[in-house]
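Data card: per-record layout.
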Amino acid sequence: MKQKVWRGWVVSLLGMCMGISLSGEELVLPEGSTPKPLECTAFPNKVCAVVWRNWNLVEVETLAEVLRTTPEEVTRLAESLGLPPYCKPPWKTSQIYITLLRRNWHLLPYEQLLTLVDMSAEKLAFHLQEDDFLFIKLGSLKPKCEPVFFVPQTRQELGEVQKWRETVETLLDGKMKLDTVPRLAFVEDLTQVDAAVPQEKEVPSRFQIRYAYSYFAMFGDPLADDDAVLYPDGLLQKLRQAGANGVWLHVVLRDLAPGGIFPEWGAGHEKRIANLRKLVERAEQFGIRIYLYINEPRAVEADFFNVPGRETMKGVQRGSHYSLCTSNPAVRQWLSDSLAYLFREVPGLGGIFTITASENQTNCASHGLQAQCPRCSKRDYAEILAEVNAAMEEGVHRSAPDAKVLVWDWGWHGHGLATDVITKLPKNVWLMTVSEWGLPIQRGGIPAKVGEYSLSAVGPGPRAVQHWEAARQAGLKTAAKVQLGTSWEIASVPYVPALDLVARHCHRLASSGVDGLMLGWSLGGYPSPNLSLPRYFDRTPLPSVEEVLDEMARLRFGKGAAQARAGWTQVSTAYEEYPFHISVVYTAPIQMGPANPLYLHPTGYRATMVGIPYDDLNAWRGVYPPEVWIAQFRKVSRGMLTGAALLKEAALAADVSQRSEGEKDARYAEVVGLHAASVANQAEFILLRDAWQKSESQKEPVLRMIELLQDEIWLARQELALVQQDATIGFESTNHYWFVSQDLVEKMVSCRKMIAELEAWLKKNTDEG
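The structure for this 769-residue chain is written out next.
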């Protein structure tokens, strides 16, 4: 179901604020089931909520335009609520628009969201589809929100606003302050080139390819903007220093080459090619190669096939989209020719990696639906996937024989054994697989298996080992996809200093003979000590894990090396208690930690994929019983906070020149500890809440709920101090900021209000008793 935003009263507003012509047609945006939005019960009213959640994230003029008022009125209300002084945001809205969408998803309708994020409906629709499953991350639905416009506050509302401010100042022991370090300040830090650092030369390595993703690049259509925004020189230099020799970015092929037999495609490809060419040339100066993520051919809507001659290209249907059937030679030729054009026009490209069975619908077998296609139904599954990859390989090597083509086995046979596909692949491709996939673990006595995105479980797993062996027997080189910096276990820190786990994984991969490493998906690309560990295992004979970690500790902490080693080991041991399950890492509130709201009444919403956790405990915990899950996160928290204390000692003992880097290890371990504690609190609160609501005569659950709310206030306050001094906390490239300072304060105020409500209930029931 889609929403059609008609040109009614919004025509002039959108046209004025976005500078586009909106006449003549309708705008189409995804809508889903349009449920009732969550109420902002903590705030005096919705206008206050909009101002609070967006203050200093967008320009005050934009906020005034959204609310149909003046900047002066917005500023006065912000001051009344106790927000810090206005500071014009130094970033582009495009750098935080996902943050803006998420925090206003239950507050504003699309019409106002378009103004807030400064996008046309067409552009927003593109981002919701292409920005790493953004609409899915938002729940595949848009709550039906009424417009929110500024009106003068009533006397009662003025009193509530004053009370809100007083509560804020009580909780913070004074007025709320601006962040010491502005959000996105790390972009400037990572942009700077250190002229004193000599350029590193590539030397023979066990891991011939070591490629990562930009810590802050856009995902959906990154080449539409200046190439320097993706990978500035400083970031390229720092990634090279950390040991990477490649970086990757997501592209859509129809935007990078002329359409050929599909003439409606290719608009703007010249600009994207020019930006890509500049990026390749700049990266080469730092010894970095550029790799492109190719997930093709993308599914299209039904009217695409109305053109004569395309009838036999129409593949299987899924929802409103149809596959471009790759059993049709013309479709495969388009794939090959487009890639040949791309690699001819951009000499020096490192290569591509392909996914042919991802969440995106591509070829007819990509979702196992090939039996519905009149052509593919007569063919073998493995043959279809191998043929698609062969078409892409041919196009790349037609123009660039030395470029690398890495074929990722993600999703093949539903992530089962897929040696039948491997044996049919072209002989000059690499086979890449997730290292930890299928690894058996036991956490809290509960057996489970790792899928992917785990740093806490040390691979390789059985599927990877069997696939690499099959690839070697077929004459292919091999690569491991790993998460060395961070993973969806928690991605709201730039890296988790569990270096013992990372070193053990790298040692095992070096011993296995793997030829290359994908250092992480869109997360974990911060130039961290974790990313530098693979290079330590390039020596012959292969050094031990202990030797490598001792050396790194001496280099990073000097006199504090012993405490650093103890801290890393403590953090690693704690992380091995993480109750891993794919549902846990995708849906639990671990990314938001103490910034995730609590609710006295069930929301009825399902947690979304690394987006909005709500209060969906059953999804959060995966295969783990609630009590076990809570206990495991409390173990993680205690161990992380102990490790953070050791790392703080190490940083204090280090030389002054080493101290700031050492303090990062301590800070990020502390954040993980705070988030794990909050996750456990939230889960316990929900269990108690639900039990209490079934039998409201019980007082013990209420007393414990009040304790948990008080602890959440403390956790939020601890995190606030860290957030205000470090702009990386809460950020990830495909989600932008999951939370900012005022979210933590909002959580504190909300908890204080719930405590008052529960205490009133206790008093009432005690008096009646």
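Known properties of this structure: The radius of gyration is 26 Å. The longest helix spans residues 656-694.

See the next section for split statistics.
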